Amino acid sequence: MAGKINRFFLIAVIILAAGLRLFWLDRVPPALNWDEAAIGWNAKTIWKLRVDEFGNRLPVSFRSFGDYKAPLYIYLTAPVVGIFGNTEIGVRLVSVIAGVTSVVLMYFIGGPAAAGLLAISPWHILLSRPALEANLALMWILGGVWLFLRGTKRPVWLIASAVSFIFSLYSYQSPKIFVPVFVLGLIIIYWSSLKRALVWLALAGIVAAVAITPLIKDGFGAGGRRFQMTSVFYQSKDNLPLTLVKNYLVHWSPQWLFLSGGETGRSQMRQIGMLLMVTAPFLVLGLIQLWKKRQDSWSKVLFWWLLAAPLPAMIGFDVPHPIRSYQLLPVLIIITAMGLSKITARPRATLVYGLIAINALFFLYHYFVTYPVESAPQWQYGYKQAAALAQEHEDEVDKVIITSYYGQPYVFTYWYQDRDPQAIFWGGAIKYLFRTIRLDGDMLLPNTLLIGAPAEIPEGASGIIKEIYFPDGKVAFRVVKT
């Protein structure tokens, strides 16, 4: 854990972290994706009606597109949306706050270098600017670790640690696998200290048991179905043990960690790995230092953290998965900071930190300049403009049909048009249809507005009144009025 607090550095790193997560927040990522729009819309229905978009009152899990979302991010976003309205910043603000708080917690857990590395980490910036429940969960996990370490000296903090870990379970699905395994390891490693505080440990256990009861009940219903949808246990037809081993090991790939996150998508970039490339030698150096100190309790915690972190991603598809394996990031950062701490000579340290700064600037350039253009289709770019155009013309037509080619058009439409949830429940958008555009048949519909993808409405089709473009200039939508 960190020693004496350097207040000047802590304030500076908070400003840096906040700036990198707030700058152009409504422009990068380039649009709300369907998950973010669903979070915003459900937050609005919770704020106004205390129900989700399907009418379920204050649910423990929110039904979404092919899965069920953990509830805490939506509940925390509800007052933000209720007070400040339907904006990209409103949906993403909870994630930004969680990201900055994680940097502060990293300072107290891993020291100044770890906090600085997390503040500029590509992995952390990529996931702490969008509205991602995993980012909120990571904050609670770090809070749980910090409070647990305090609890080994002052046991009263064990209850607060339990609460923080429980909040992570209500924030995202992956901690439901990682946290029990990780906390069990913490208890075993620090048992010599904890056995003198069994009353406080028992109280923390009781608090945790009571708090997770709704999750356990939900696990046999809606929340449990998400596990079936995303788990190789239910869907893989390959050799299961081999699949699990491959899925686990791929998260240690140097190519993925340091060179390229893969094809540019929502949570990774083609030009850069999940971690800054120049920090790779210091991760290795940190691992060597960790092995030399392997008898220390803290070193054992870090080893256990490393081993347990990929478990949630291991049982899923689409590996390596930067979101499901997100809890791996802090321990990699801490170990890298341990390696950096061995560079003490001023000329050498200046060179190293200069190279890290250059690498970070390279990432930031691509993130703010290249990434919004390349990743726009993955963020369902254009539905905001389509919703505005539909609202502009809806009084002139009998029906509006918006394509489902890119995703879930209804949630973008309701969100961006600032619809009243109560009105939607009572058929306030009855004029709208959300489906694939079938041009030959749909052109026969009288007085109808069609908003479709280029694959559905080709160039030169009759009745085109407008085109909506991706940032790279390619057509995202064509609009036809019959």
TrEMBL record:
Protein's membrane topology: Multi-pass membrane protein
Glycosyltransferase among keywords: yes
MF terms in GO: pentosyltransferase activity
Database matches in PANTHER family: MANNOSYLTRANSFERASE YKCB-RELATED, UNDECAPRENYL PHOSPHATE-ALPHA-4-AMINO-4-DEOXY-L-ARABINOSE ARABINOSYL TRANSFERASE
Protein name: Uncharacterized protein
Keywords: Cell membrane, Glycosyltransferase, Membrane, Transferase, Transmembrane, Transmembrane helix
Organism: Candidatus Beckwithbacteria bacterium RIFCSPHIGHO2_12_FULL_47_17
GO CC term, one of those recorded: plasma membrane
Any one GO biological process: lipopolysaccharide biosynthetic process
Compartments (UniProt record): Cell membrane
The keyword Transferase is annotated on this UniProt entry: yes
Major localization class: membrane
